[in-house]
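Obj: model holo form, ligand = magnesium ion.
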Amino acid sequence: MTLKIDRVDTYILKVPLPKPVADSIYYRTHWHVPVVEIHTSDGLVGTGYSGLWAGEELLNMTIDRYIGPMIMGRDPSEIHKIWRDVYWSPLHWVGRAGIAHMAMSMVDVALWDLAAQRAELPLWRLLGGRHSTLLTYNTDGGWLNFTTEELLEDIQGIISRGWKRVKMKVGGPDPRVDIARVKAVREAIGDDITLKVDVNQRWDRITAQLTIPKLAELDIAWVEEPLHPDDVIGHAALVAKSSIPIALGENIYNAEHFATFLAMNAVDIVQVDVTRVAGITEWLRIAHNAQEQSRWVVPHAGDMCQVHQHLVGGMGGDFPAMIEYLPWAREIFEDPMTVKDGICTLPEIPGASSKMRADARERFEAE
Ligand code: MG
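Output (holo structure tokens):
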């Protein structure tokens, strides 16, 4: 009997954050998770999802009206074939980035989850099984809406729970205040902790040129998203001048744009996010390309690490196997990632760790 997709369901979860957080662009109280579940004729269910805080219904609508009907009756194991058919469907006009592309990602993650379940392997082993543990760095602190006192308390708390790598937000209206806050954190945590900073796109080229050398005096491991994410030339100029590596990628939505950043030498650390590019299929193309060009791939935590742990664990190569840790949606997953003392131990349960808990809809489903 041929294997077939016979049902595609979507729903939305809204998860409250433990406390409101702000970076240099947004203030958030909730994390929204649109979910797709793909049922197949052998009785398996694959789960894909995204993470954002506005527009989640648009992703699900794209699946309900367009992608779902396109893949109904198809063989779910033909992942690349389905990817190309959806990519070159009439959605192409509205879909090489943004909403349609993110909806494609949800479906693609669900198909890979199905493939791993069918192989009875965790996805990272299906992909090649290079690393069974990963380093993590913690971003669940250092928010821009915290006073300096709260910031220090918050980051010290993360370190006391075992992390040796942390990130804090900068990009406020006055770079001198940013520098003072980073300095206060560096003095409080000492020299043995790796500290990264995230601008969230807020600087112009001049502010970046003036501020990065001051950060370099504070032993900063990377500067993330210093400029507008589409400014390839500006980032190339910073990479050429900066003694601190430049990290970006969470706002780059496809393989072609990543290829341009790599070709222009406009990025050091590649933070490709599986929920923003069109799923695992495109993530792997981008990550392999970056790795071949001697860049670290350290994915952004937009999917709450659940799928990224498998992707980094499954990749070959000798770069540091590391992911961002931001545990906003742990409560919705049946098998939330395991992290102790800043080290993630990869799961042995078959699939992509994307399955939702049985009570997730009852607790968090949006009206
Ligand atoms: Mg970031």
